[in-house]
Amino acid sequence: xxxxxxxxIVTPFKNGQLDEAAFRKLVDFQIENGVNGIVAVGTTGEAxxxxxxxxxxxxxxxxxxxxGRCEIIAGTTSNSTHKAVExxxxxxxxxxxxxxxxxxxxxxxTQEGIYRHYRAISEIGPTKLVLYNIPSRTASEIKVETxxxxxxxxxxxxxxxxxxxxxxxxxxxxxxxPKEFTILSGDDAMTVPFMAIGASGVVxxxxxxxxxxxxxxxxxxxxxxxxxxGELHLKYFPLLQxxxxxxxxxxxxxxxFLMGMIENEFRLPLCEIxxxxxxxxxxxxxxxxxx
Length: 291
Fold this sequence. Notes:
Number of strands: 10
CATH architecture: Alpha-Beta Barrel
CATH topology: TIM Barrel
Distance between the termini: 36 Å
Largest sheet: 8 strands, parallel, barrel
Order of helices and strands: EEEHEHEHEHEHHEHEHEHHHH
Strand content: 5-15%
CATH class: Alpha Beta
Number of helices: 12
């Protein structure tokens, strides 16, 4: 269902508030450089520190500025099923193309609990739902068997953002799920190997700063040109590494600040990058002529 490059867009702040003007420019920058969609208020968008009204406003801004030029997927993750349902209702009313929902963090639910969590969200209505498996942040995995059960029982669950770091798991998912169900890499550094065994694209952090280049890589892989995709992957691998030298989204927001696109502002508990890593990141950006 979802194929191509989806940017997990940052949420810019200015004096503690949403920087709406900067956000609109970021959306235009993404669309002008060929992405297929934007994921608003995900992990990279610091969703955990936004209140309900801010969450809705970011999604509303993304939809307004995109104006149908690309798909808008809204993050509605919560470790409370009730809260996830309320967030999903809100963004569905705004007109989001889909919601992206990570498995509940901290609670460490059983697979039955994870199944019921997603089923409750899917029952809201026809809004498409993208599963999000990222055990490094949630302390729980959506097992392949649970994914298959959800896809069978919930027709609006159409894709998964896979950030488990395992090609074996991608192979198991591809064999267990219908052909039309798409797998998106949730880790820039794993995109090419994931696509080689059946993934259909990426939800990318790196495309915040190099959307054209990531889109070219994805399009090459979708056409089976893995020689080109591999060359691009190797070329930009140092950048992919340095965008995770500290917790996401600290490095990517810092990069956008250095590029003159946003303020250097975060919501606690996130804070500015360390001095040594700042210089390392600046050197890498300069190498790729991004400064």
